[in-house]
Specification:
Blueprint (H helix, E strand, L loop, with lengths): L4 H13 L5 E6 L2 E8 L2 E5 L14 H7 L3 H5 L8 E5 L4 E4 L15 E2 L4 E7 L2 E6 L4 E6 L5 E3 L4 E7 L1
Antiparallel strand pairs: 1-2, 2-3, 4-11, 5-7, 5-10, 6-9, 7-8, 9-11
């Protein structure tokens, strides 16, 4: 038996209602679903269907997908002393705007607050808002609109005050 989109939606709703729960990891039939509450929002991380561990193969391959190799994160752009990365908290499709033809959430040179949206990542038809996380000025937007991003990939670079 496989988890359906509706099953995942119900799990997320349960976690959202459980205010005392900050993080949960569910391993079911080779699927690893990791949900973490960050700054009051839910973030979802699950490996793509092709990378799921079959039930007979054990947990090692599934863990490798849930925690990407350091090399994938090490290929990050170079930072100045006052710059910080906004990284993708999950694998999915990154969008710079709320819809086609809409104004992007952020542009280079724009001042942002920690709770400002810098993009959206879509995973299994669920849209996850990505926040700046710090006050500062957008220096670079590294991820292309409508592109597939990996967990840990740099999306935006922000210079702090």
């Amino acid at each position: 038996m496989n988890l359906t989109h509706e099953d995942v939606k119900v799990i997320l709703e349960i976690v959202d209602r459980a205010e005392h729960l900050d993080e949960i990891e569910l391993v079911f039939a080779g699927l690893r679903l990791h949900v973490r509450r960050s700054a009051g929002e839910l973030m979802l991380r699950a490996p793509p269907a092709a990378a799921r561990t079959p039930p007979s193969a054990g947990g090692v391959a599934g863990e490798a997908m849930a925690n990407p190799p350091v090399a994938a994160v090490a290929a990050s752009p170079v930072l100045a002393a006052n710059e910080l990365f906004v990284r993708a908290p999950m694998l999915g499709t990154f969008y710079r705007a709320s819809g086609p033809g809409e104004k992007p959430f952020v542009e280079v040179g724009q001042r942002v607050r920690a709770d400002d949206n810098v993009g959206i990542i879509e995973v299994m038809k669920l849209f996850n808002t990505i926040r700046a996380g710090v006050d500062g000025t957008v220096v670079r937007v590294e991820a292309q609109n409508a592109s597939l991003v990996e967990f840990g990939q740099v999306l935006v670079v922000i210079a702090t005050e």
